[in-house]
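USER:
Try writing one entry.

ASSISTANT:
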Amino acid sequence: MTRYADIPKPIRSGIVIVDPQRGTPQRVILRFNPDSLERALAPRAAGVEGAGDRTEALRLKGPAVETWKFTAEIDATDQLDVAALEGIHPQLATLEMLVNPTSVQLRNLEALAAAGTLEITPIEAPLTLFTWGNKRVLPVRLTEVAITEDAFDVDLNPIRASLSIGLRVLTVSDLPTGHRGYELYLAHLAQKERLAATVANGRLAALGLNGGGVL
């Protein structure tokens, strides 16, 4: 008889901060199991749609623009090993800091502007990975974060929240050669190629074709 203890616990998806130089994980900031995942891929076609250039119809300029959207629920008992006096404030703050510069960085920019610096380099966000099992580990940029806080403790610290998150996969078209995210994307693409190679070839007869002529 199967016992509950014998049933393996499902692994979780998550967001990981990575050292951009060494490529080593620094922090796992969130872990969750969304019920569904919406993915969209838009090809980077070489030609302009409707332009009528016959030589460009099948050419690609680079990897597709890939976006992910999902809704995840987190709560204090799910995210933490011990009770926290601040609820899930720290987890939400860590997620929000992925789309915000730090106060120190903003003060440094203010000092540069006051000193008359003509060109100020935009602040670089940390290298972020999204993981969905061991076959989907890819560099991403957060494009959307909507937070609905559903429950609070007596001090109004949030203890449960629903997160609507949008991600854009960073590819070799977005990152410079040699960047750690560049290599991580290539590893992700190689994983796709390996999985695609395992699909058995279908038979033309199943499509009502006899193989004559071109097909």
Observations:
- The two ends are 53 Å apart (CA to CA).
- The beta strands are 13-18, 25-32, 38-45, 60-75, 127-131, 137-152, 158-169.
- The first strand starts at residue 13 and ends at 18.
